[in-house]
Design brief:
The structure holds two protein chains of two kinds. Chain A is built from 13 helices and no strands. By secondary structure, chain A is mainly alpha-helical. Chain A starts with 8 loop residues before the first helix and ends with a helix. By secondary structure, chain B is α+β, with helices and mostly antiparallel strands. In chain B, the strands form four sheets. Chain B has a six-stranded mixed beta sheet, sandwiched between helices. Chain B has a five-stranded antiparallel beta sheet with strand order 13-12-11-14-20. A five-stranded antiparallel beta sheet of chain B has the order 15-19-16-17-18. Chain B is elongated, with a radius of gyration of 25 Å. Classes of the chains: A mainly alpha, B alpha+beta. At the A-B interface, helix 9 and helix 10 of A face strand 6, helix 2 and helix 4 of B.
């Protein structure tokens, strides 16, 4: 669409406000982080990534985020399915509760996990420790990123008339075939979008993870907790380098998301 | 016998949707279940396909008791009112779906899909997506998809309900053509009388979960056994009557007993005659060719294409019952009928039914 009328002063003001706000909130910090990382040249950055605890922190972050994505993809899909296709007492309440991870402070969530799964907690694990260990981090990541797949897939599932499944059944398709060949192709893009959001959230999570993991260097330290520790230790180059890497990852995810969003919109048409 | 339904009942909570329904549909027959919305007709169809389970009773397809089988093992073809095509598949893929899950080989699949595209007259549309087709075309594809794997029976749930009137009439005829050619036993559910009369070999009237009456369109229209059927199908003139010896007493006159009426003396009966069976005469020029049921006054004359509708109120015992007559335009102008004119009402044919 082309602008035909000349811009009014108010329109110009609004544009300036929006761009200024964006510049201060996320463009300037990005520039600052990149500038800070490269302030001392390339060598200190490379040194940071030679540090085994940094490498380990990235491994923990990526592997556990991947696991959280797998768990939330399957359980999120199931949740979305149950919420759209089954009627049961308390369904509406449950539907609302799915958003709890969005509104809960991650720190409180982490604390609740310590209370529940800690040594004297109600659900204290008998064998492998959860709290101050890797399973705790996974749990925290799963918790904070839980709603994304549900909320992306649910509206698309709602547009699939139950008659489509009934038609598949009368034609002879079993429930697995129906899911794979009738349902999945319809929700594929939405599911992928939810997965990307889940991954982004899981990678970036700090609060819940910090509380539940104890940030033990070389063991339960994640990339974001490393940034936090490096800042406390006045190791700015380390903090900046890891931050830049995380930022690049996020930008990659952003690009992926916008291309998926375009596909979703096309599908709706 | 392709479809046998034996004493099937179904309730949702305390609401009885089907009350002990039994029905037999012969091989190759096109059977229409006709009923208002909420009469239970769609429920019955879903029970046959296995999309619902009956509370009691049995469903037998081609001699095989399928009552407890899931829909996948019944081999029925089902067509829904809202087409329900798979949106992400092309027309060809939709039609081939049943063949591909049966692991039919590619060449055979393609041959069959070509054949069906020809049958539904959409040869050029094979590679289109459903969203690129009109409603009528989508429903034809849905029909082809349901026929592809040669189903044991074809079940159609208000298949033309979402289409506009012109397309509906066309599609109806092409369905009948296809059904005749393939000889597949078919049940179609509709609330549309015209549709039912147009295509059915036999019609079943369903009302509040009960299958009231079965018969050919002609028999149900001319000689229904139930009062509901008589007034549900078309326009019915119904007058109180009783039998007396070899005659019927209506409105203080005697009419000969119709050949198909075997009713007890003195029993309360209804005399049914359709508007087109009514003959009107001037009081000074009556013939005894028709059964005369008395004199009346013309209340209204209106155009009901292509006929003329005349409303008459009888004088005498039935003074309050208006009678509808359908006459040709030339009959009306010959009689020079006007509102308020005195006429004598005669019946070309009539039917008796118990109350």
């Amino acid at each position: 669409m082309r602008e035909i009328t000349p811009r009014s002063p108010i329109a110009i003001l609004l544009i300036v406000i929006v761009i200024g706000y964006a510049a201060i909130l996320f463009i300037a910090p990005l520039v600052a982080v990149v500038q800070g990382a490269f302030a001392g040249g390339l060598e200190p950055i490379l040194n940071t990534f030679r540090d085994p605890s940094v490498v380990h922190a990235f491994q923990v972050t990526l592997v556990l985020s991947g696991a959280a994505v797998a768990i939330n993809a399957i359980l999120g899909l199931t949740t979305a399915w149950v919420l759209t296709r089954h009627r049961f007492r308390g369904r509406k309440l449950f539907d609302t509760l799915v958003d709890i991870p969005f509104v809960f402070s991650p720190v409180i969530a982490g604390y609740a996990m310590i209370v529940l799964f800690g040594r004297d907690g109600w659900l204290a694990p008998p064998l492998v420790p959860i709290v101050f260990a890797l399973p705790g981090i996974l749990l925290a990541k799963v918790f904070v990123s839980l709603p994304f797949v549900v909320r992306e897939v649910q509206p698309v599932l709602q547009t699939i008339a139950p008659e489509q499944e009934e038609a598949a059944a009368t034609i002879g398709a079993g429930s697995f075939t129906t899911f794979r060949r009738v349902i999945l192709p319809e929700i594929r893009t939405a599911l992928l979008y939810g997965v990307v959001l889940t991954f982004a959230r899981a990678i970036g999570e700090f609060g819940a993870v910090a509380v539940v993991s104890g940030n033990i260097e070389g063991y339960t330290e994640t990339a974001t907790s490393y940034v936090y520790r490096a800042l406390n230790d006045r190791s700015t180059v380390g903090a900046y380098s890891v931050s830049v890497t995380l930022c690049l990852l996020s930008i990659g995810i952003l690009v992926l998301m916008s291309s998926l969003r375009r596909r979703l919109n096309e599908q709706e048409r | 016998m392709s479809i046998e339904i034996q004493g099937v009942s179904k309730s949702y909570g305390t609401h009885e949707v089907l009350k002990h329904v039994s029905l037999t549909v012969e091989s190759g027959e096109l059977f229409v279940l006709l009923g208002a919305s909420g009469s239970g007709k769609s429920t019955l169809l879903r029970l046959i396909a296995g999309l619902l389970e009956p509370d009691s009773g049995r469903v037998i397809l081609h001699g095989r008791d399928v009552t407890v089988l899931p829909p996948q093992q019944r081999g029925t073809g089902f067509v829904f009112q809202n087409y329900s095509l798979f949106r992400h598949m092309t027309v060809r893929q939709n039609i081939a779906f049943g063949l591909s899950i049966r692991r039919t080989n590619r060449t055979e699949q393609n041959r069959r899909v070509d054949e069906l595209l020809q049958l539904i007259d959409l040869v050029e549309m094979g590679d289109r997506m459903p969203s690129q087709l009109s409603g009528g075309q989508q429903q034809r594809v849905a029909l082809a998809r349901a026929l592809a794997y040669e189903p044991s029976v074809l079940l159609l749930d208000e298949p033309f309900g979402a289409l506009d009137v012109k397309i509906r009439a066309q599609l109806r005829q092409s369905l009948v053509g296809i059904q005749r050619r393939l000889g597949v036993t078919t049940i179609l559910v509709t609330h549309d009388q015209e549709e039912a009369f147009d295509i059915a070999d036999r019609i079943g009237i369903i009302e509040q979960g009960e299958l009231l009456e079965l018969g050919t369109p002609d028999a149900l229209y001319r000689s229904p056994q139930r009062l509901f059927t008589a007034s549900f199908l078309g326009t019915a003139n119904l007058l109180d009557a009783r039998r007396s010896g070899e005659s019927v007493v209506v409105n203080d006159v005697l009419l000969p007993m119709p050949s198909d009426g075997q009713y007890l003396n003195g029993h309360a009966l209804k005399l049914l005659f359709r508007p087109e069976e009514v003959s009107l005469m001037r009081p000074d020029n009556t013939t005894s060719r028709y059964g005369l049921i008395g004199a009346g006054v013309v209340q209204a004359v209106s155009f009901a294409q292509p006929m003329i509708r005349v409303q008459i109120s009888l004088t005498g015992e039935h003074a309050n019952t208006p009678i509808q007559a359908l006459l040709t335009a030339s009959e009306v102008s010959e009689l020079n009928l006007r509102e308020g004119d005195q006429v004598v009402v005669g019946l070309r044919s009539y039917h008796l039914l118990p109350i």
